[in-house]
Amino acid sequence: MKAIVVGGGIGGLAAAVSLRRVGWEVQVLERASAFGEIGAGVGVMPNALRALEWMGLADEVRRLGTPRVSGGVRASDGRWLVHLPDVGQEKVIAMHRADLHGVLLRALPSEILFNDVEVTGVEELDADLVVAADGINSRLRGVLLPDAPGPVYAGATAWRGVAPGPYDLPISQTLGPGGEAGILPLGDGRVCWYVAAVAPAAADLDPLELFAGWHEPLPSLLRSTPDVLRHDIYELPLLPTFVSGRVALLGDAAHAMTPYLGQGACMALEDAVTLAVCNGDLARYDALRRPRTQTVWKGSRMAGKFGIEVRSPIASALRDFAFRALPPTLAVRGMTRFSAWEVPDQVHSNGSNPPVN
Ligand SMILES: Cc1cc2nc3c(=O)[nH]c(=O)nc-3n(C[C@H](O)[C@H](O)[C@H](O)COP(=O)(O)OP(=O)(O)OC[C@H]3O[C@@H](n4cnc5c(N)ncnc54)[C@H](O)[C@@H]3O)c2cc1C
């Protein structure tokens, strides 16, 4: 069986690795002139690590990333609202996005990777399965589901970067009125960070000014970062299906979500493994992936409502109070609830389909 994967981001490459593991012949078509990944950090959550384990790449990810467990949520003045000691929760692997992308890329033979190929339709693609992993502005989604609405501005803009350091910091998220920030320390002393603020799309804003009064080391991290990336945050309204004929949507093309749970790329990794174990049964892929990703999509939106979208200082103080009153076990459960995912059973070529849970 032959699959063509459109898009060579984290989702597309993970799909290629996974499909090859169950015996498919795969080609990856990428419109950029080279396979690569910009961006800053990514937290590989336990669910994503299980997907990578199935792909045979978890050891490489553990080797390049930094397992982190302590940390928690802080207020903009630096007070800990939830401080998680090591109470048995699973670790998050902090790594640079380019490193995760590199692990996937190295797992694929170069002769199946084609760059400078912009795919505009599916008719010309000679394959039993087409994987549309062409990102939030997916061209193929527009062809397959012409009535589905496109991405919508989520009301906030984000800046990301990697500060040279060296720093020795815990992993943390900071919430303040109308903004939030995240710190993901890498093992070599560099620190991946992001800050996000409620703002109109494409607003002319200086993050150094916006976050000047927030706790250290946030202002120092921003100041010392040579290349800062800016992204307005968009989300994709929920789709009625992820499949059409021999085409499956995967990753941001299917379910781009706000970044407040740090699960977007993790979902793409889950999608990839699920598509492979479904072994061409796209109805099953849709039945397994749509409910799961749409639950996380809604969770991420909710996290935004109680996080970045709380704009008044009074409401923000009330939120901080509620956080501090949470028993640690509840706080841990709240933070890890979307990490409970296991690789589904494989569909075998004799047609025996395991049930959809
Ligand atoms: C500010 C921010 C912070 C984030 N933080 C996290 C985090 O901490 N953890 C996490 O898990 N996720 C995070 N995410 C989400 C994550 O970045 C995405 O979910 C993930 O990168 C999606 O991967 P993808 O492969 O589906 O899409 P993409 O990475 O967008 O890849 C799509 C690929 O398809 C190619 N392409 C597009 N159109 C065509 C075409 N017509 N023909 C051929 N090729 C094409 C593109 O060039 C690109 O290489 C964050 C997102 C943002 C915006």
Automatic annotation (TrEMBL):
Gene Ontology MF terms in the entry: FAD binding; monooxygenase activity
Keyword tags: Monooxygenase, Oxidoreductase
Residue intervals of the FAD-binding domain: 2-78, 242-276
Protein name: NAD(P)-binding protein
Domain of life: Bacteria
Pfam families assigned: FAD_binding_3
InterPro entries the UniProt entry points to: FAD-bd, FAD-dep_Monooxygenase_BioMet, FAD/NAD-bd_sf
